[in-house]
Amino acid sequence: xxxxxxxxxxxxxxxxxxCIEVAKxxxxxxxxxxxxxxxxWVDDLYRIEGKEFSLIALVGGDGTFLRFSRLxxxxxxxxxxxxxxxxxxxYEEINPEELGSFVDRLFSGDFFIEYLPRARxxxxxxxxxxxxxxxxxxxxxxxxxxxxxxxxTPSVSTELEVESDGVIVGPSxxxxxxxxxxRGPLMDxxxxxxxxxxxxxxxxxxxxxxxxxxxxxxxxxxxxxxxYVDGEKVSSVxxxxxxxxxxxxxxxxxxxxxPRGWILDVLAKRALN
Length: 273
Prior knowledge:
- The protein is α+β, with helices and mostly antiparallel strands.
- The model has no long low-confidence stretch (mean pLDDT 89).
- A six-stranded antiparallel sheet has the order 6-5-16-13-8-9, with helices on one face. Strands 12-11-10-7-14-15 form a six-stranded antiparallel sheet, with no helix packed on it. Strands 2-1-3-4 form a four-stranded parallel sheet, with helices on both faces.
- Helix content is 18%, strand content 40%.
């Protein structure tokens, strides 16, 4: 008898009634196939620390996806995203009534894997994973702040002083998030690189920067600043280095459809109707 590809699954869900119902349906489909299933809501992930699952299902929106990415380190199993939320940029369209057919495709191997690179963020002795960005922003939004940047690449090592409201650093998937709103470069998800962008810089000749994935960027605020990782505040710092580097612990995401016109999709969602 052949050993199934997936023997255990973790279903992570957004704690809303609609997402709970979808998570229940998904759990039923998986258990009918003899899969051992454990579930947890996205704010309760500490309960499954140290456990291993051959499949991870995320039921929710982009907030659920980002929170899981931020808290999860090494990912052993592929991620099966099931949309249930207002913003679903990281999800494909899956109707809850058709969920069974997508589970069938999953177990028959009718899918491909998309790899999403992340950034590793270190603040003192704490580590985080950033899929969108790490942002260091002056807490006093009425005044321009000072930030010292140290950038090291395989060929360059430089330091610069920046006068701005804040600094954003992230991997290519995050280029379509806050970075794009701040007039940063739009990078293909598959591109291995980091971006550095500046919020309302005082220096008019200061432009966003695209760096190799192996680079290290250290932001040291010279004003009291808040640090956000993928939209969630994680720290307040002052003269404390915030380090960002490319991480090799990528997310492996199950996809069922051929790649879309991604750039057009991103820009169309930001157009005024």
